UniProtKB/TrEMBL annotation:
InterPro entries xref list: FRMsr_CS (IPR000614), GAF (IPR003018), GAF-like_dom_sf (IPR029016), Phosphatase_reg/MetRdx (IPR051330)
Protein name listed in UniProt: GAF domain-containing protein
Cross-referenced PANTHER family: FREE METHIONINE-R-SULFOXIDE REDUCTASE, GAF/PUTATIVE CYTOSKELETAL PROTEIN
PROSITE patterns for this protein: UPF0067 (PS01320)
GO MF term set: L-methionine-(R)-S-oxide reductase activity
Organism: Lactobacillus crispatus FB077-07
Amino acid sequence: MTATTEEKYKLLVEQARALIEGEDDWIANTANLSALLFNSLNDVNFAGVYRYENDELILGPFQGMPACVHIQMGKGVCGTAAQAKTTQIVKDVHEFAGHIACDSASNSEIVVPIFNQGKLWGVFDFDSTKLLSV
């Protein structure tokens, strides 16, 4: 029997919890989560974290091709998500004004802000080679 998409995502959440449970080190946790998501989600060519520091985003642990190290607030999908403090779902990055193309193979992107005690901590960035049909 093949698992449904919902079942696959529930398993992924369980795996993520098991990886970070009891571990306080942000580098270890974000590195493991990046690896888990990169290797578990279809067509993802980048999964990683940008940490918010000194009014910019700085590259943290990731999986994929080499990436941009510094992203200014409000620039690209990551900077837009961080500044607006909202998830950005971009079905076609080529239509996103100001898209930062770290990997030319990327066609869609999802960026989720991360908060710690109510304050912006960073963003989780996912790029895909496929156009989204959400």
